């Protein structure tokens, strides 16, 4: 859901430096952070649960934004400051940007749906084909953004601007309604547990409810940050549906796509398992890199030693042959 207008290619130098710098910082942060999420889930057995696979899918979409969209935006604003516009670069930027943003939004909607099922219908959530449900949700999160991106590029920028704005409004209403229902349900269950004096496996139930509450509050925080970061962008998208361009638009889309670098920070601060797994992954990878570097240096020194010995032997042989010729 990121656009540019090729007819507007004039940015002040100060804005260019600021926008490029901010995007560069969040680009590096997003690549490192989302890579850390992917590597951590892959390496940590206890994190390989179905609910975390939605976070992995979100991290992949965010990684695309940080690794491709933000570097392209940096190049584009630098070119615009020189009065130049590259249509090919703009098309790639719009394609990947629209796809990754739409995919992220749909994944957040499906995560909200999963949280609602987990709290309201825990038995249905666990038993009603969870793996198949995940495949269906992720397939939709890939296919619909592809269709949207094609329509955005080939059909009508104005129509898709209104469509994405309306989708955001209805999606946001849905998300807020779901989390209000979830919070009310968790509060109701908490009151029931306090009033009850004989609940089988009370500690397990209490622990499960606490975990659900923690995950729900974390996802609500992620969606809240998403709304704050993307809100100004969609205001521009709706108020200027045909001409998404200019200095202000570059600022709001910088804010929007920088959101991709923030989710892993929320995981680290709010989810203890991810926090511990991040630390373990960083330490393990650092040790492995150090060991590989040490082995590489040892091999290099060994090769240099062998080459030095070979050169010395060649020198001795050459010196001996010269002596023989003199005799």
Automatic annotation (TrEMBL):
Gene source species: Paramuricea clavata
Annotated localization: Cell membrane
Name of the protein this chain belongs to: 5-hydroxytryptamine receptor 1A-like
GO MF annotation terms: G protein-coupled receptor activity
Record's keyword terms, sorted: Cell membrane, G-protein coupled receptor, Membrane, Receptor, Transducer, Transmembrane, Transmembrane helix
RNA-binding recorded as keyword: no
SUPFAM superfamilies tied to this protein: Family A G protein-coupled receptor-like
Main location per the UniProt record: membrane
Membrane-protein topology: Multi-pass membrane protein
GO cellular component: plasma membrane
PANTHER family: G-PROTEIN COUPLED RECEPTORS FAMILY 1 PROFILE DOMAIN-CONTAINING PROTEIN (PTHR24249:SF372), HISTAMINE RECEPTOR-RELATED G-PROTEIN COUPLED RECEPTOR (PTHR24249)
Tree of life domain: Eukaryota
Any Pfam family matching the protein: 7tm_1
């Amino acid at each position: 859901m990121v656009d540019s207008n090729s007819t507007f290619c004039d940015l002040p130098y100060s804005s260019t430096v600021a926008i490029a710098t901010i995007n560069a910082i969040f680009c590096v942060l997003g690549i490192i952070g989302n890579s850390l999420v992917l590597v951590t889930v892959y390496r940590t057995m206890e994190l390989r649960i179905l609910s975390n696979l939605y976070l992995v899918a979100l991290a992949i979409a965010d990684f695309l934004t940080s690794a491709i969209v933000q570097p392209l935006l940096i190049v584009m604003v630098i070119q615009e400051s020189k009065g130049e516009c590259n249509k090919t670069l703009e098309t790639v930027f719009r394609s990947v940007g629209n796809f990754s943003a739409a995919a992220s939004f749909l994944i957040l909607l499906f995560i909200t749906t999963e949280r609602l099922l987990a709290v309201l219908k825990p038995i249905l959530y666990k038993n009603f084909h969870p793996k198949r449900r995940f495949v269906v949700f992720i397939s939709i999160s890939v296919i619909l953004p592809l269709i949207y991106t094609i329509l955005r590029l080939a059909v009508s920028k104005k129509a898709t601007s209104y469509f994405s704005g309306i989708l955001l409004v209805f999606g946001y209403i849905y998300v807020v309604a779901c989390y209000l229902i979830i919070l009310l349900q968790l509060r109701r269950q908490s009151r029931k547990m306090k009033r009850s004096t004989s609940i089988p496996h009370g500690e397990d139930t209490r622990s499960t409810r606490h975990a659900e509450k923690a995950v729900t509050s974390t996802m609500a925080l992620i969606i809240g940050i998403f709304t704050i970061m993307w809100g100004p962008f969609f205001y521009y998208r709706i108020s200027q549906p045909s001409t998404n361009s200019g200095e202000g638009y570059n600022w709001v889309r910088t804010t929007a796509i920088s959101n991709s670098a923030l989710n892993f920070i929320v995981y680290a601060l709010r989810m203890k398992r991810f926090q511990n797994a991040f630390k373990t992954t960083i330490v393990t990878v650092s040790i492995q890199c150090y060991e590989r570097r040490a082995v590489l240096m040892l091999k290099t020194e060994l090769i240099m030693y062998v080459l030095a010995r070979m050169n010395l032997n060649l020198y001795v042989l050459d010196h001996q042959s010269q002596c023989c010729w003199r005799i």
